[in-house]
């Protein structure tokens, strides 16, 4: 029969071949064995650990986790897999370790420790990559839904959101106003002062509409010099007041020291209107405002202008 000493020597030799820490503690959490990994990779000498409580190598937070969760898990389930602990190496540097453990009938715990520094680094890199991808996705979503020049909603996004808003207003039985805003003599501005000046006017008008509108309003550059505003929970009186103030604000935008003017076509929803219905009505109203002299608001179905 082989001697116990020979068996222990063989066991020690086998454990020293693994590129991971092997550690045994007794029922009092005293370290009774460590393999050579601790000296070669964690800079602990065997005699610095054997006979010491395992708390010697654990950080404060890991000690709490060790006592409150890891040990109770071992006592109840006999094994514990892929737990995360932070330990100190022999130089006092914190090292994240993945722990697997198993307890026998004598209360001895056999620990396998794997350095997870690279795993944590990879995890951090994956998190950062995911966050970057999410940011890029948000940017792409924004680019797909906004007008590049004015940063207002583009035509497609306006169509989509307006439909949702109308469905909501139908359920809540609230009226909605739709405004079509068209810059007067915009072609003349481009032809006389150039497209850069025209772009400036579009940008300033977009900023003015966004600053003046409520957070719940839908505001878009619908195409060329045409802008749309959808005003939820707004009746005829409120919409006309909005348009009056809008004309005054837009007049602050100057070209050749002269105020920019707009023609506004306005319509109010009822329970059967779709977005296409409202747009057609407001678009017809803006053409009527143009034909009546521009720089005014025309309510669809009303012969009077403002």
From TrEMBL:
Write out the coiled-coil annotation as residue ranges: 116-150
- KW Methyltransferase (keyword) present: no
* Name of this protein: diguanylate cyclase
Please state what class of enzyme this protein is. Answer: transferase
SUPFAM superfamilies cross-referenced by the UniProt entry: Nucleotide cyclase, PYP-like sensor domain (PAS domain)
Fetch the InterPro entries from UniProt. Answer: Diguanylate_Cyclase (IPR050469), GGDEF_dom (IPR000160), Nucleotide_cyclase (IPR029787), PAS (IPR000014), PAS-like_dom_sf (IPR035965), PAS_fold (IPR013767), Rev_trsase/Diguanyl_cyclase (IPR043128)
What residue stretches are annotated with the GGDEF domain?
Answer: 174-302
A single Gene Ontology molecular function, please? diguanylate cyclase activity
According to UniProt, the reaction catalysed is: 2 GTP = 3',3'-c-di-GMP + 2 diphosphate
Q: What is its EC number?
A: 2.7.7.65
Q: Which NCBIfam families match?
A: GGDEF, sensory_box
Keyword terms, alphabetized: Coiled coil, Nucleotidyltransferase, Transferase
């Amino acid at each position: 029969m082989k001697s116990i000493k020979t068996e222990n020597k063989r066991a020690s030799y086998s454990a020293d071949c693994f590129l991971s820490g092997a550690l045994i503690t007794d029922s009092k959490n005293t370290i009774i064995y460590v393999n050579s990994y601790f000296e070669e990779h964690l800079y602990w000498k065997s005699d610095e650990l054997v006979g010491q409580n395992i708390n010697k190598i654990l950080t404060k937070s890991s000690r709490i986790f060790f006592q409150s969760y890891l040990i109770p898990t071992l006592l109840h389930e006999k094994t514990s897999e892929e737990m995360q602990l932070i330990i100190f190496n022999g130089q006092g540097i914190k090292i994240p370790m993945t722990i697997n453990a198993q307890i026998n009938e004598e209360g001895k715990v056999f620990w396998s420790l794997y350095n997870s520094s690279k795993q944590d680094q990879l995890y951090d890199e994956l998190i950062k990559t995911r966050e970057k991808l999410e940011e890029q996705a948000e940017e792409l979503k924004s680019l797909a839904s906004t007008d590049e020049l004015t940063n207002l909603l583009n035509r497609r996004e306006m169509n989509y959101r307006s439909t949702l808003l109308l469905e909501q207003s139908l359920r809540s039985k609230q009226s909605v106003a739709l405004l079509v805003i068209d810059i007067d003599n915009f072609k003349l501005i481009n032809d006389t002062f150039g497209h850069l000046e025209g772009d400036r006017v579009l940008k300033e008008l977009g900023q003015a509409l966004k600053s003046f509108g409520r957070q719940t309003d839908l505001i878009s550059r619908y195409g060329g010099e045409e802008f749309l505003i959808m005003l939820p929970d707004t009746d005829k009186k409120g919409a006309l007041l909005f348009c009056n103030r809008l004309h005054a604000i837009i007049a602050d935008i100057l070209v050749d020291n002269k105020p920019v003017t707009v023609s506004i076509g306005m319509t109010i929803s009822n329970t059967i209107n779709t977005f296409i219905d409202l747009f057609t009505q407001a678009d017809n109203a803006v053409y009527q405002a143009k034909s009546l002299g521009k720089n005014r608001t025309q309510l669809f179905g009303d012969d009077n202008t403002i």
